[in-house]
Amino acid sequence: MEDMGFGTLAVAWIRMIRPPILFVCSFGALVSALNCSIYNNVTLSVFQILLLLLGPAFLSTGTMFHNDITDLESDKVNRPKKPVPAGILKEKTVYYLGIAFMICSIFLGTFVNYFDSGVLNWQCGLLTFLLVVIGLYYNYFGKHHGIFGHMAVAVGVGAIPYWGNLAIFPDQPLLMLPLSVAIFFLEIGREIMVCAGDYVGDLKAGFKTTPVRHGRKRSMQFALFYYLLFIPIFPLSAWDWAGIHMPPVFGIIYLIGGAILAASLLLTWLLTYRVVATTTDEKKIWKSFERYERTGTRVMIIVFQIFLLFEVFF
User: Fold this and answer.
1) pTM, rounded to two decimals
2) Residue 273's domain is classified under what CATH number?
3) Would 5 be classed as within a structural domain?
């Protein structure tokens, strides 16, 4: 590591942080909190906005650091050029820094409102602690327990808007509940699809993901089921078609963004499934999953978050 140049190390750490994932977490929590504040006619302070960005950033980065350590055997096959398997960064350094980041995220969630109200936000702090525990469960055990591992990841992703909700309005837990539940199901499907792309490496590493247990094609059919569950649930935050008295936090822009996201999920699934059904070339299959499921769906989630930002102003 001492022989590495500063530029090489800087790039390695940036890759470890995963800027797209960091953006999805921090921006998602912020736009959710902003929409909740508009709904309640409350203005957020600069300090609240800062912690809304930093809390999810530390949480996601810490859990991702640990994920890189526990994924090491699989990454040596699927992604050997990542910083840890390539030997650019030391395992222990990444491990202990991940612990520090996760601890910081719990404190940030607890103190998010302290300088504005003088009150500790125990609800958000507890939620952050639970997300840390779930993240550690997934990193160390979830990969070996099929669908429960995928659900652990989905809880973390679905909690992004809920974290923004509880951070500012801990006494109104229903504001982002439908969106969080919808994203939870979406992310189960997406996680199954990502693992289907990593099938070869996960098989060699001994990870018992759903694709390893049930085969790639069968698991993709499971993923489609979870993608479809997103469709009837996400409108509840704007249009309470079920009559269960969910707060109408969002409007038409949100519904349009959600419809586009749902359509993109189905399209990327179809494009990936077509490749799997027509070739046995693992390189082509892996590239299709990387292009459509890992990258394509992530881009569309960011686009959806931008629609949520537009909701703040219109």
Assistant:
1) 0.91
2) 1.10.357.140
3) no
